[in-house]
Write a structure and sequence with these properties.
- The protein contains eight helices and eight strands, in the order ααβαβαβαβββααββα.
- It has about 300 residues and is α/β, with parallel strands linked by helices.
- α5 links the parallel β3 and β4.
- The radius of gyration is 20 Å and the shape is globular.
């Protein structure tokens, strides 16, 4: 579930456009960016029905929901104290709305576990790229999410950063970030940039033919990169656990994979794609090639 102020999300405000989300060619980038960040002022999701979402998920047999509380555009769907770029600045419920809070209550009502996605990359924060200052800012946001909404079962980070070669560089303090999670939500699973669950390496929802839970791949949040570099592997490598690779490794990790896939051509809703939703047969095939392959 992706949270965005509108029908597109933050990739479209990258200085390097992506072909599946692009702005009008005659609109200068700075004007587009100003318009995009201004969307918060008109945000008013009057048809937002979190109980309906949770009801559908529970009936479909799903066990948990991971909600994108902030994506790369930096817009926060809870009334954070760290920035004005949030629902608190919108007209929705006179600035008193809290999407995260309402979803958390809906999950509790329908017996669903609740997880949060919080984007490390932030295209709105002025302190992004300023080392310790941004890490403090990010940990404050994380702390709010982990202390104000009851038990959080999973915390999901990604390593995305589309700044380009001349963009801002931010060194994330993963040690302090993970320490914060372990302190505030000791039972939470840390995913992707965490060290409990890894990304499978594609967004097609497919596991490798043999998807090992015990792997030689070091988590991306670990400061020592020499192990992966020596083995010439990363999260997208085809082989992460064969006998031949294990023979070359100095250490292994219990680091099972998680898959992600969209039921549409892209990650975001467009009415013209309503006829392109994945078929039941296709989804079952993906299930067999993900869960059926230990992912």
């Amino acid at each position: 579930l992706y949270s965005v102020p509108g029908i597109v999300e933050s990739w479209s405000i990258c200085s390097e456009d992506v072909d599946w989300i692009s702005r009008k060619k005659n609109l200068p980038y700075d004007e587009y960016k100003k318009w995009y960040f201004g969307l918060k002022d008109s945000l008013n999701p009057v048809n937002f029905k979190p109980k309906q979402w949770a009801d559908v998920m529970e009936k479909a047999g799903m066990k948990y929901m991971i909600f994108t509380t902030k994506h790369h555009d930096g817009f926060c769907l809870w009334p954070t104290k760290t920035t004005t770029h949030s629902v608190a600045s919108s007209s929705w419920k006179n600035g008193k709305g809290d999407v995260v809070g309402e979803l958390r209550k809906a999950c509790e009502k329908y017996g669903l576990k609740f997880g949060v996605y919080l984007s490390p990359w932030d295209r709105n924060a002025k302190c992004y790229g300023q080392g310790d200052e941004y890490n403090k800012f990010f940990i404050e946001q994380l702390t709010e999410l982990l202390t104000n909404y009851g038990e959080v079962h999973e915390v999901w980070f990604d390593g995305a950063n589309g700044e380009g070669p001349n963009g801002k560089k931010q060194e994330y303090d993963w040690t302090s970030i993970l320490k914060t999670i372990h302190k505030l939500q000791p039972n939470a699973v840390t995913a992707i940039m965490g060290d409990d669950v890894r990304w499978v390496g594609n967004e097609g929802g497919l596991g490798r033919t043999t998807e090992w839970s015990a792997t030689v791949l070091s988590p991306g949040s670990y400061p020592d990169k020499s192990h992966n570099k020596r083995l010439k592997i990363n999260e997208m490598s085809k082989d992460l656990g064969s006998r031949e690779l294990v023979e070359k490794a100095y250490r292994m990790y219990w680091y099972p994979s998680e898959v992600d896939v969209s039921i549409r051509p892209g990650w975001f809703y467009h009415a013209e794609q309503d006829s392109q939703v994945r078929s039941l047969n296709n989804l079952i095939d993906i299930y067999y090639q993900s869960v059926g392959r230990n992912s």
